[in-house]
Amino acid sequence: MARSVKNQQKMVNTVIAWTIGLLIFFPVLWTVLTSFKTEGQAINDPPLFLFFDWTLENYAIVQERSDYMKFLWNSIFIAGGSTLLGILIAVPAAWSMAFVPTKRTKDILLWMLSTKMLPAVGVLYPIYIGCIKLGLLDSRLALVIILMLINLPIIVWMLYTYFREIPRDILEASRMDGASLWKEIIYVLTPMAIPGIASTILLNLILAWNESFWTLNLTAAKAGTLTAFIASYSSPEGLFFAKLSAASTMAIAPILILGWFSQKQLVRGLTFGAVK
Amino acid sequence: MMAPAVILLLGWMLAPLTTTLYFSFKKYLPLRGGDLGWVGFDNYVRFVTSSSFWPSVYTTLIIVGFVLAITVIFGVLLALLLDQPMWGQGIVRILVIAPFFVMPTVSGLVWKNMFMDPINGILAHLWRFFGLQPLEWLSQFSMGSIILIVSWQWLPFATLILLTAIQSLDREQLEAAEMDGANNTKRFGYIILPHLSRAITIVILIQTIFLLSIFAEIFVTTAGAFGTKTLTYLIFQRVLESQNIGLGSAGGVYAIILANIVAIFLMRIVGKSLDAKES
Amino acid sequence: MGFIELKQVTKNFGDLQVIKPLDLEIKDGEFTVFVGPSGCGKSTLLRLIAGLEDLTSGSIQIDGREASQDAPAKRGLAMVFQSYALYPHMNVYKNIAFPLKMVGMDKDAIDKKVRKAAEVLNLNDYLERKPAQLSGGQRQRVAIGRAIVREPSAFLFDEPLSNLDAALRVGMRLEISELHKRLNTTMIYVTHDQVEAMTMADRIVVMNHGVIEQVGTPLELYRNPKNLFVAGFIGSPKMNFIEGSWAQAQGAHSVGIRPEHISITAEQSEWKGVVKMAESLGSDTFLHIQDSGVAETLTVRADGEKSFNRGQEVFLKPKKESLHLFNEKGERQ
What we know:
- The complex is a heterotrimer.
- By secondary structure, chain A is mainly α.
- Chain A folds into 2 domains: 56 residues, no CATH class; 208 residues, MetI-like fold, CATH 1.10.3720.
- Helices cover 74% and strands 0% of the residues of chain A.
- By secondary structure, chain B is mainly alpha-helical.
- Chain B has a single domain, classed as MetI-like (MetI-like fold, Orthogonal Bundle), CATH 1.10.3720.
- In chain B, α2 crosses α13 and α10 runs antiparallel to α13.
- The longest helix of chain B is centred in the C-terminal third of the chain and has 34 residues.
- The model of chain B has no long low-confidence stretch (mean pLDDT 84).
- The mean pLDDT of chain C is 90.
- Chain C has 2 domains: 229 residues, Rossmann fold, CATH 3.40.50.300; 88 residues, CATH 2.40.50.140.
- By secondary structure, chain C is of the alpha+beta class.
- At the A-C interface, α8 and α9 of A face β6 and α2 of C.
């Protein structure tokens, strides 16, 4: 008896949760579906769900007309480059804060966090004019550096929380076992830190990929990322739902997949370790 | 080994900040005469007394307030639901989280065109299905529309963090409360909600910081028209559209002050969690 | 060889002196246990010997050689940690091989030693497993294996059994004792559990508040505790302490007597009391006696076969030759 009540409850939960889940997911699903329709079918009344003539033509048109590949490459270059650069700078910093903490470590960490809270618009002009003066407006290099800087606090924090979890006992054991500092780093610390570093990279890729203040304001035709590429679809020209959907699908697909793998890290990274 | 990170961030913070401060005391119109000299606090006064300032503050506060209320309330409910036993929990979680990974420009455009378009949008179809006149979402209900889009983007974040927090609750506490005769509602009120209070505070603070500076969603939908001009957007327009750098910079300083008020509270909480780990 | 000598060793953490100036000699091949309540400085002392903490002052000599400034690995000591501190990303084989790899031993020699250690510790079937896939006792063995292969001049154990359940603890206790017999290497073992100390040690070092209270064999400490602290710490259940007129009549400020040295007599005897509670362990029954007139409660060991009721009146006879007499300062007279 109790068991069947439990199953009933579970059934109810399942139905409610799936309904809400699909509702929330619907805009994404609808975008993906529409991307495979013809423009005519995309605005059909009533809307068509699955029974339409599936086509890939929108993807071809989008690539041809707006050179998707260029923007994709810019996104990959900028997200990847800023992440890699950030990690290179953050690992030693997080390392020393986690393993050789001083009285000022906490203050430095919190101060780093505070730089993340600087509203971008407050420094828009100086950065803008700086880029012009250095000839870096609409360049990938400028965005790599800027995105690295805005995300550096998060990278340092995440790495720091991961490093902190490596038990000191194990480091001491390796010291007893005769490992020099370098051997300790290579054989013990790094393998244990790799999952943490990987998660940090993943989260940072997502954040950099979706960043859309600096990418919109500092890029144009040359260094534009996918966020800018999509924004160029904001002024419609005739029927364009299917093409917009195709472009959108291509812009979000890579990161959606990465994102699903990083749910746990996301929580830790975005709350600076305060919720795990 | 901390030096590179610290120096870079220090430079990143100080250089633009001092430049912004510098320009905020100048009349500076790059396209109309360039540097026209020092003006003291003129820009600060003009920014605040301009007819668009207070509306932009209200707009900002309304968007932030409503999005926070919606995401926190529905986030708690959704997190509670996802914590229940069910089939396909992992998949539902993935479905719910998806919007967070959609870049702001995409979600802005998808909602604007495919959902809120008064002729071909899904919502228009839905309204007609019920025999109603479709709404002109982004012009008639511009604020509601923006709030809807932004809430859709941030609900997953709140849900995910609150779900993580719920799952960290010691099951024995709930069992003890059950033994003590607390029913579902009371267990929620006396055990779960207090346990979540810290996570809720964190969600509110972090979202506030991001929401104060939402930009792309407005940029691609209303471009600040129909009463959706936030403080961020106003400053953006002053700086890059009307190229009034002095005025824009003064606005920037206001935005920085506003963000810092929120930041102080967030830092306190994060700082505490840092101490807790050390003990 | 494993002869360790501490001379005027001290350790401060900030303003707090956790180890007060202290001398200690640990003989080659001896099984020495540091015992004391938590916070007494026993783990710190071990870590000073290991080299994981720096001395504030004093010196440590190992086999007659000054070692105070040596890095941990240079001291020729091996340590087994409370948390085992196994490398989670390496399997059992690699964990045990790690210290040998660090000294650059060639692969065949490493293999031989690791397999031999695994044999001794019954780990042959688990060599490919990661620490996470092992039980607590198996992890403990791996940690010991990692220590053995180095053939150290002394083993250091930091509360190694405290994470194991009671049954396993007894088993591992025996295994470590057997290991000591077989290897005949100096072992220093830290614990807060006086039963472990009594059963395993050749010599016990009782510590309290950063000071060595007494050093001696288990039976010396049991028979001749130097002060009230050692008397109360060694032995289970705890020794009874009696003050007041009865103690003065024995010529002391306070008198200690162990529960096993008070007998229950049928007829009128020295003391009389009321049973407050009887704890039957089967082999023995421990009685908590009230209203004896000498102490608030007395703990008495009785025959496990006999039964006692709450409130029952009993006659008690202390064994006069087993009294411990202490002066006002709590020192043995």
